[in-house]
Structures are given as C-alpha cells and as structure tokens.
Write a structure and sequence with these properties.
Blueprint: H1 2-30, E1 36-40, H2 52-60, E2 63-66, H3 69-78, E3 85-87, H4 93-105, E4 109-113, H5 125-134, E5 139-142, H6 147-153, E6 162-167, H7 172-182, E7 188-194, H8 195-209, E8 213-218, E9 226-231, H9 232-242, E10 248-253, H10 265-276, H11 281-292, H12 296-310
Parallel strand pairs: 1-4, 1-5, 2-3, 2-4, 6-7
Antiparallel strand pairs: 7-10, 8-9, 8-10
C-alpha cells in the first residue's frame, strides 16, 4: 500500500511540474517579442537542456540566424518550431552581417544561435553584437547551456578565477608560444580541442605548464559523457595511446602554484618581444598585461625601456 501511495504522490507531483512549465511557456508565448537581437543558448547535447525562454524566443523571432541551418533544424523540428532561418557563420559573416543589421534597423527580431551552447563562444557573433549596439539596437542574452561552464564546474578544479583560451593553434611552435603566454595567469585554464589534435596539445601543455592537475571532458550532457582526471603528463600519454580520436573536447587545467605567478621583468620583456612581432606597441602592452595579470603601467614602462634599448 505504501509503494502505491508513493507512486500516486509522485505522479501528482510530476503532473504539477508539467502543468506549471506549460503555463509558464504559454505566458511567454502570449507576449509580443520586442524588436532586437537575441543571443539564444541551445543544448550542447541533451535537448532537454533548452530553457522555456529560449523556446519562446525561437518560436516568435522573425528570423533565426544559425551557424549551421541543417544542424539547427533538428533542434527546431524536435520542438515543432517552424521559423525562417538564415546561415550566419565565419565564412559568410562579412556578407550577411549588413543584411541582418538592416533587418534589425527595420524593427525585426533576430535570434542568433550556434551549433551548440551559448553563442559568441568561439564563433563570429561578437561582431554582429558590436554593430547592433553601435546602431542603438537592443541586444538581449537568453542564457543556457555552455560547454565551458559545464566542464569547469564538474572538474573539481578552482572556479573562482578562470581563463577561457578557446582553441590552441594547430602548429606546435605557435601552440607552445600561446601556452607560454597564459602559463603564469593565476587562473584555471579552459581550452577547446579537436580529437585529432588532443594528444599533441596535451603533450605541449605538459611540457610548457608542467604536471598540473587537469580534466578532459567529452560528450558533455550526452549518453556517453566521459570526464577524465589526472596530471597533464598522464592524460597526454593516455590520449596519445588512444590513437586518432573523434569529436571535440574541453580541457580544464588547474592554476599554477603560487611561486609560478611571480612575474619578473625578464618574463615581461620576453612576452613583449613576442607580442611586438604581431601587434602595435599599445596593443602589445595591453595583451601582455592581461595575460600576465600585472599592471599595465609596469608593462608600459618596461616596453619604453625596451624600445630605447632597441633604438
């Protein structure tokens, strides 16, 4: 009798949850969608992770700008959303951005989505946002799933300060140079990486960053989600032994030890010399100060001395 009572109670609770969710979505759908650009987070694997606000915006938007329309149609079809779609990605952004801005100026609502997760994370959306804001157009974020935050929060590594560094360069020399730039950042580091390059990247991380604690996250929120933990050298050896891997991975690396964060003048000079080969003096000073987490005034003074010496 107790089991039957518990089952009936659970069914009633489930029914109330479904009803409340339906009511909330109905209320959202009944409101007109104000003109503007909406940055809509979509699931990174599990379709149930989409929010009610995201569904309401996607269903009411005048047009949905998607990184890959074929991929996004699967999501929209799953929730019976039929909407005009247009492609917006790194290869057509320069051509398509003026068209989208023109539609926004005309008072339309546009939802920007990526293939998975939160838009603007490793995609060209920020230029569209910048131009929309410059034109006085409202930009609203509809938060939701993010592979960066999902990997970070489940890693067991410090979360109070973190640096998302995106994809590392494909060539070893450039990759190690980038790792040197972020080596002393007093933060947990987060990278994206492709399967074929994972082993090589982890090896370079182990060489440059040392045997720090790290986590590799794969297939997050999906049926075969895996999270591997260990030192960088151990994870690198395991990845190399696995051979060619498929898919994309999130790599989370613990922050440096306290003694590693003491930045010497020589370290600043080293980073400045590298940065000045690629950037203007002002941009080099700013980027080095940000990466090494030191005052910009200190980097500026060292840069002036370096320029006088070179002169």
């Amino acid at each position: 009798m107790q089991d039957e009572h518990d089952e009936n109670r659970d069914e009633a609770a489930f029914g109330r949850i479904v009803a409340r969710a339906g009511e909330a979505l109905s209320e959202l759908m009944a409101r007109p969608l104000e003109p503007g650009l909406y940055l809509v987070a979509t699931p990174i694997g599990n379709l149930a992770d989409i929010s009610l606000r995201a569904l309401a915006v996607l269903a009411r938007a005048d047009v949905i700008a998607a990184e890959d329309t074929r991929h996004s149609k699967k999501l929209l079809s799953h929730f019976a959303i039929s909407a005009e779609m247009t492609a917006y990605h790194e290869h057509n952004a320069e051509r398509e951005r003026p068209k989208l801005i023109a539609r926004l100026r005309a008072g339309e609502s546009i939802a920007l989505i990526s293939d998975a997760g939160t838009p603007l994370i490793s995609d060209p959306g920020y230029k569209l946002v910048r131009e929309a804001l410059d034109a006085g157009i409202a930009v609203r974020s509809i938060p939701g799933a993010s592979a960066v935050l999902a990997a970070l929060t489940s890693s067991g590594l410090p979360t109070d300060t973190f640096l998302f560094a995106g994809f590392l360069p494909p060539k070893q020399a450039a990759r190690r140079n980038r790792l040197e730039q972020v080596k002393t950042a007093p933060a947990t580091l987060i990278f994206f990486e492709t399967g074929p390059r994972l082993g090589a990247s982890l090896t370079d991380m182990a060489v440059v960053l040392g045997p720090r604690a790290a986590v590799i996250a794969r297939e997050l929120t999906k049926l075969h989600e895996t999270i591997s933990r260990g030192s960088l050298d151990k994870l690198a050896a395991e990845a190399e032994a696995s051979g060619m891997l498929k898919g994309e991975f999130v790599v989370v690396v613990g922050p440096p030890e306290a003694e590693e964060t003491d930045v010497s003048d020589a370290k600043i000079v080293e980073q400045l010399e590298k940065a000045l080969n690629l950037e203007s003096f002002r941009d080099a000073v700013r980027s080095v100060a940000e990466v090494l987490q030191v005052p910009r005034s200190r980097v500026y003074e060292i840069g002036l001395k370096l320029k006088r010496t070179d002169g």
